[in-house]
Amino acid sequence: MQTKIPPYVYERLMDFQKVGVLEAIKKQGKVLLGDEMGLGKTIQAIAICAFYRSEWPVMVICPSSLRLTWQAEICKWLDLPEERIQVIFASKDRVSSESHFVITSYDLASREDIKKQLEKAKYRIVVADESHFLKSREAKRTKTIIPLLKGAKRALLLSGTPALSRPIELFTQISALLPSFTTAVQFGVRYCDGKQNRYGWDFTGNSNIAELHWFLEQTVLIRRLKKDVLKELPSKTRQCVYVDIAAKSKQTFAALMAQNEEINERLEDAKTASNTKHRQEVTLEKRTLLIQMYRETGIAKLPAVQEYLRELHDHTSKKFIVFAHHTHVLDTVSEQLNQLKTRYVRIDGSTSSQVRQDLCEEFQNDPETRVAVLSITAAGVGLTLHAADLVVFAELFWNPAQLLQGEDRAHRIGREENVDIKYILARGTLDDIQWPLIRRKLDVVGQSIDGHSATMDTIESSSARDEKEKRLQPTIDKFFGSDETLTELIGGSTEMVEQEKEAHDKGRHSVKTLIEAVPTFTAVEGSSDYDASQSDDERNPSRRLKRKHIDQKDAYEESEQKPKRFHRGKV
Questions:
Q1: Which of 252, 377, 406, 472 is least crowded, fewest Cβ atoms below 10 Å from its Cβ?
Q2: Are strands 221-222 and 30-33 parallel, antiparallel or unpaired?
Q3: What is the CATH number of the domain that holds 14?
Q4: Are residue 89 and residue 186 in the same domain, yes or no?
Q5: Which domain holds residue 101?
Q6: Is residue 223 domain-shared with residue 247, that is, in the same domain?
Q7: Looking at the structure, do residues 264 and 227 belong to the same domain, yes or no?
Q8: pLDDT tens, 270-304?
Q9: Backbone angles phi, psi at 334, to 5 degrees
Q10: Which string of DSSP letters, residue by residue, matches 486-547?
Q11: What is the per-residue pLDDT across 141-194, written as a single tens digit (0 to 9) for each?
């Protein structure tokens, strides 16, 4: 097997992942990879695709929020240039015959223009990530995608929860891999305690479950739980979840970058003229722009963050933590959880010490309380929340130590299982600049104090990471202008955030004078080109985020409400 998989891929697989890849190859590349979340289904699927390289190109169908993550993972693991990995963003896109991988969403694959192109291409390898999206036999996407899977020589279905509530949800996935297995009625009668009534067949029950499990393991299913492979897992597994932003957000950031270039020119002129006062004024202007971009990055990611929360709500019952910095982002996360009727606690700068402790105990001990919504600066230290299996960062922060401390709210002594860490990053925003800087800063600190680089390694090779950061370096240099300016700006930004936190704790706003110098700014109005994973007839338009005019003067205005404790329903 190793001879057909590049060594730089095979050698980085954990032993249980190597076993999973080998089993998939034994099953002729037609499998339902049902490993529990956090065990690397994506990585195993990429390795399997590498084994069958002679049969490329590969089609990947996934939830819309995961398209860019798939692109990034393929780049990292297979050392392919991005231009060989096509991501379909809209129904008007043309599928390239030159691409090694074509990545699209369930919704787009169901649209007529894309559907015809995919059918015409006749892909020999098709990957369906989160394949439980195909559980309904009557859904438009199921009727479109199942034939593509049946027609492929290799079909890889990935899902940590293949059946969310009842065995009948497995039928479409099994039929995609074993077309001649049985009919839906025969499956329903045998394994779903099927009964006829005046409305037709009722397949909501279950029967002969042990037999079904045995059959699946013998034919298409590969499934491991974390507890089964615990000794092989690192204590923390990080992954960057790359998301797209709306077209209007892209226009906004293009305008901000143009404004930044103009400021850079004036800053260089100020240095040449040795005008200290003027240089300080321009530096302050640039720092203000940086704060504005930081806030707008959080806002631009909100539709994708909301969708990610919906997927977590629908497809896992485990507890998780969501970190953010800006109050607007924290509020939107809270509102989304309320809409989902998910019970949660929230800890931010307005939460008293006693209430914090009560909320922590509730999250730790109440099985109905699934989510903790936390401020990065106000809840990053001193809290024990190791009941969480997953930590999601909706926003980044300038100081990497704050992020590590946030991760360690779940990764504590007393916890035996691995913790998954997800960083949601949006391309074309400040994340492109902030993430490499965070990693670089942590490396320098680690070398100074520990004698070796500290790490915020994600699931990727150091060479792939270095290459990516090398590509981004011109963008970083262009943004900051010089290392001297970079140090001054980042130091100032971190200092200002600390001042904000201190001021908020004391009930005042120390940076209000600066913020009043910031012009008003109109955030993105809606997200008309935002592609959720649901099909058109399933999508609820009322879920779309509608943002009103936002005054930038409120950028550091924290909520003065009483400590919040939310119990708005159960899952």
A1: 472
A2: parallel
A3: 3.40.50.10810
A4: yes
A5: 2-232
A6: no
A7: no
A8: 777 666 788 888 888 888 898 999 999 999 999 99
A9: -60, -45
A10: HHHHHHHHHHHHHHHHHHHHTTS-TTHHHHTTSPPBPPP---TT---SS-TTT--GGGS---
A11: 999 999 999 999 999 999 988 886 688 989 999 999 999 889 999 999 999 999
